[in-house]
Specification:
Length: 450
Amino acid sequence: MNPNDHLPSETICVGQVFFQTLGCKVNQYESDGIRKRFEALGFRTVTDPSDCDVYVINTCTVTAEADRKSGQMIRRARRIAPRAIIAAMGCKIQMSADTECADVCVGTSDRLKLPDIVLERLKHIEKSTSVNNSSGPGFSRVYEELGPVISREATRAFVKIQDGCDNFCSYCIIPYARGRSRSRDPKEILREIQLLGNAGYREIVLTGINLQAFGKEKREDPDALIHLIEEINRIDTIGRIRIGSVEPGLIDERFADALAHTEKFCRHLHVSLQSGSDSVLSRMKRKYLAEDFEHSVEVLRKAMPEIALTTDIIVGFPAETDQEHRESLLFCKKIGFSKIHVFPYSIRKLTSAAEMKPKVDHRTAMKRKAEFLLLSDQMGECYAKRWEGKTVSVLIENKSGTDEYRGYSGEYLRVIISAESRRSPGDETSVFILRSKQGELIGREIRTRN
C-alpha cells in the first residue's frame, strides 16, 4: 500500500521533504497530516534526507531522554542536510524552541501553517521563524483538524480523535506541552476511517492523549467513545478496531459490555497504571488507587475473559521506597498483564514532582526497571501459552521466510505463520497455534475448502 497513491500524478514538485518523528503514535499521525499538506502544495516526500530541500523533525518531550534526542536530531539534521530548511515542530518546541539549529519552529498548534511558511522561505530567504511556541496550558479548546490523514503504516491506520489533557499528574509535562483536552468531531473521524477502509486498511487504532476525555467538553454524551466505536463497527471495509492507551477511570460495566458486544473490537487494551503502590499513586496525583484499578480489570475480564491487558509503570518515582517498589511489583504480578512498558522516572520542569525529594538514584531505578522487565517477560510467556491449541485471527504484516509470514492476533500477540498459499500485508487469516516461544505464537494457517 503506497501512502502517496492518493496524490495527483500531475502535481508539479516544488521541493523534496523528509520527515523524522520521535515519540508516540499521536506524533506519527500528526506528521502524516503535515506531510499531506506539504504534498498538496507540491512537495515530494523522500526517504533519503541527504538531498531534501526541507527536513522536518517532529519532537517529543515526555521524558528528559526524549527531549535530549529531539535536540540531537535537530542538530544532526543540519549536518546531514546543510542546505535544507530545518523545520522543528511538536512538544519539545512548544516548551522551548530550539532555534539555534532550526530555521522554522512550530509548537503543538497551528501546525498546518508549517508547510506554507516553509514554501515562503524557499522563495525568499528569511530569518528563523517561530509560531506558537510559548509554554503553558492556555491553548484553544478547539481541536486542530489535520485530516483526513492517510497513514504511512502498511496494515493498520492510527486515527487521532482527541488532544490535550486536564489531569496534570505530578510527573507529566504533557498538559503544558499540548494544552487542555479537546475532542475531534465524530463526523470527521468517521469520514477519515471510511476513506482509510476504502484505501485498503483493515485495522483502525483510535489514539489520543487522554481518550477518557473524548467528547466530555460539551457534556452532551457521556458515552461518546462507546458510540463512536459502535459507528466504526458498522463500516463494512474495516475489520478490526483497537483503542490506544486508556485510563482506568474510563472502565465500568457499561464500557466493558459495549466492547464485548462490538464484533470488530480486538481483545486487547492498554490500561495505564504507573504504580501498584497507593502511596506512590497519591504522590503522582493519579485519580485512583490500586483496588480501583483491580476492579476495572475484573470488570473487563468478566466481559471478555481472554482479553490481553498491557500497561505502563514508572520506576524510581521521587521518594519511592523499596517497600513501595515491592508493592507495585506484587500488584502487577497479581493482575497478570501480558506486557509491561517500564520507564524510569524523568524530571520534567513545571511539574510538581520535579520538586519532590528525595530523588531515587539512577542505579536503583535501573535495578527496579530490570525487575519489572523480567516480570513482564514471565507474564507475557504465560499469557501466550494459553493460546496453544487454539485458533486465532491474524493480520499479516510481512513475510519472514519462504513460506513464513508474521502478523498480530487480535490480542496483540506476534504470530509466526506457516502458510502454503501466498499472502500479502493486510490479509487476515485464521491460524491454529502449535506452540508459543518467548511470548510469540507459532502456528499454521487453516486452509479453507472451496
